[in-house]
Amino acid sequence: xxxxxxxxxGFIGWMVSRKLIQEGYHVIGIDNMNNYYDRRLKEWxxxxxxxxxxxxxYRVDIEDKESLVTLFRQTRxxxxxxxxxxxGVRGSIRNPHIYFTTNVLGSLNxxxxxKEHKVQKYVLASTSSLYAxxxxxxxxxxDVSSPISPxxxxxxxAEVLAYTYHYLYGIDVTVLRYFTVYGPAGRPDMSxxxxxYCALKGKEAKIFGxxxxxxxxxxxxxxxxxxxxxxKPLGFEIINLGSSASYTLNEVIELIEKYTxxxxxxxxxxxxxxxxxxxxxxxxxxxxxxxWVPSVNLEQGIKETVEWMIENWDWLRKVRIxxx
Length: 324
Fold this sequence. Notes:
Layout: E1 2-6, H1 11-22, E2 26-30, H2 39-50, E3 55-58, H3 65-74, E4 79-82, H4 89-94, H5 96-117, E5 121-127, H6 150-169, E6 172-178, E7 181-182, H7 191-201, E8 205-208, E9 214-215, E10 218-219, H8 220-229, E11 236-241, E12 247-248, H9 249-260, E13 266-269, H10 284-290, H11 298-311, H12 313-316
Parallel strand pairs: 1-2, 1-4, 2-3, 4-5, 5-6, 6-11, 7-10, 8-13
Antiparallel strand pairs: 9-12
């Protein structure tokens, strides 16, 4: 089977592509290799994939419909996993337009070409940020019609588009709402990567708020496994992928200090009103629909992330991180 993975050099796209190849799929990966964050991480992930047989790469932007047209004419895809996105709440407040051109227009381009070429399976990466203001644990049936950031709003729009194409053209759609994903080769704008980096470098780390905010931190390999499982026919379903446990940022800091054997210098900053105070996934649906449960807990995941960063520190030390 030939699977199109968009955003294949991104954090989740890389791990999903690896998992697909290991399970015998042929992955056609596309990525625009933008510089939203330090491109050295994307280049490392891409080189890692290019060492694997069963992987082909094209530098294509999902906003560029003409390039996508050429790609869909060249290959008969069995499914599309759309992981190409502008991510991050704070970044979307600074530059909302690019979030909509990528996350909404890019999704529309893919769905139109799937319709034309009769590709019947679509997996869309969405976000737990949609659950702002709702009671935990977050269930897929909760009302998510009031997003509080342009990022969340763009993902809600992408979800609605996917339903429209399911309804009109019978495309089988799985929307996956990911909860805070972390792990080796992660994004340098995300808290766990930044905190480990700052610990190893002896650099001051920005903490937004007092550190008591809680997140459902989910290890990237768990996320990749759930994403691959979601290729099965489901009709139209929205499914949470999270660890179903919630930890404070202060608890995460303690674990990072334990495994780096360093003390993190902290600079507390104002909490952003577009961020969620707490997240926790109800994963009942993932359990019975995908036969999926996360196998890596937070402590093991942080330990493995720290080990990967230390192993790659010769080039990671040069990576630029953003503090939000």
